[in-house]
Design a protein that fits this description.
CATH topology: Glutaredoxin
GO molecular function: thioredoxin peroxidase activity
Keywords: Antioxidant, Disulfide bond, Oxidoreductase, Peroxidase, Redox-active center
Pfam families: AhpC-TSA (PF00578)
Distance between the termini: 26 Å
CATH architecture: 3-Layer(aba) Sandwich
Radius of gyration: 14 Å
Family: Belongs to the peroxiredoxin family. BCP/PrxQ subfamily.
Catalytic activity: a hydroperoxide + [thioredoxin]-dithiol = an alcohol + [thioredoxin]-disulfide + H2O
Length: about 150
Amino acid sequence: MSLTIGQEAPDFTSKDQHGNPITLSEFRGKKVVLYFYPKDSTPGCTAQACNLRDHHQELTDAGYVVLGISPDSEKRHQNFINKNELPFTLISDEDKSVHELYGTWQLKKFMGKEYMGTVRTTFIIDEQGNIENIIEKVKTKDHTAQIL
């Protein structure tokens, strides 16, 4: 499935780092940064999360809610948040159902091996729940600038 700018963002319900249900549509009226990333506590994912953390006030001032999502467990997310003092919610998608909805679970190649994995992608969703922008070439150390 390939999503396009202007299209309604697929709604979903999953669990946050505390195990509480979280639904995309509950953020209607706010702009959402929904960023898909491969794995907690890896160098690129940590750089990306810390960039969003360091500029969180700017994003909040611009009206954005930041939601990170990966196939990691709730417990792993909580550890990642605690270790890096992340001020935003991380969503657990262990069954990859949200990844499937957004087309971010794909065949990848690394060092000659093929495997299924998360394609690092950020969806900017407007107040009406429509996709305003899709960032496919994410710069992990400068991601906030790409969003703003």
